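Annotated sample (chain length 382).
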Amino acid sequence: MSYVGETLMNLLHQTAFFNLTWGNYVMIAVALLFLYLAIKKGFEPLLLVPIAFGMLLVNIYPDIIASPEQTSNGVGGLLYYFYTLDEWSILPSLIFMGVGAMTDFGPLIANPISFLMGAAAQFGIFSAYFLAILLGFNDKAAAAVSIIGGADGPTSIFLAGKLGQTGLLGPIAVAAYSYMALVPIIQPPVMKLFTTKKERAIKMKNLRPVSKLEKILFPIVVTVVVCVLLPTTAPLVGMLMLGNLFRESGVVRQLQETASNALMYIVVILLGTSVGATTSAEAFLNVSTIKIVVLGLIAFIVGTAAGVLFGKLLCWITKGKINPLIGSAGVSAVPMAARVSQKVGAEEDPTNFLLMHAMGPNVAGVIGTAVAAGCFMAIFGI
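Output written by the structure step:
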């Protein structure tokens, strides 16, 4: 009987109930909230479902992301090897290839002024950088945190890894992806605050047709120009433009389909679960994480406001030909930010169609955030 009793007690003590802390329960609750938002509310489910599930797993079984040195048998946890691909910048770069393969840069080519709105929206990143330094972050940590303002998860992971801020990678990535998912909630109040009803109701003329040659030359020219000026952006900008060249060349349809479908979804699973697994209670529930979340939100709001205000300036310069709402899409949450511009504009006039116009600043924002990351790496000599 004693043997049976000891066996039962050993089994009982192996359950997670005897190992979980209050912090683990808090993070499990957060994971369940993310799953609710993703499944019930439809907030970026492709991102939030794997992130939330990784968060759930690591707070029940921390060893799932343990390194080989931390385990008794010298074999790391499953998600440790997924996470290593994040640290090596492999998964973020592959995500960019998939994004490029799915993206039509036609609206940006047809309306080059969109580049300026995409650039204006990056103001949130640099304003958050100086604010982060004031809050006590060192220069590299401040840069890694501030890039959240671009609402671009892969770039946030990429920069944190390159700047050696892997200890902050979990909170940074979760904040970036969370704000990407919450674009429909965060952006509209800011957009309405800085625009009038008359401005929101402005109808824009149809974009000019873009030739096939222009679409083929665009990724090549952008790669040469950006990567010559900022070579460190090559992993992101290069993969983005390679994926787009797959799409626009028309001669490698199989590669385009693979990059935008099978490969993209595989990488999202690996990246999402590994990012979620960095949010153990010990690593996530601290003052630094709160600062990161707040700074990321400030950067995102400032970036949205800067895009809208620059849109207002262009509206004034063009005597009402540009709707300021499309400036908010300059953050790189593609295509959610462009859809929000369309939605807010349609609230004033249901016949107003801003989506394609907003896609210009939106895809410009993807390039702009990568360039901002490249600027930080150049500053720190990475």
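Annotation: Residues 100 and 368 are 14 Å apart (CA to CA).
Annotation: The mean pLDDT is 89.
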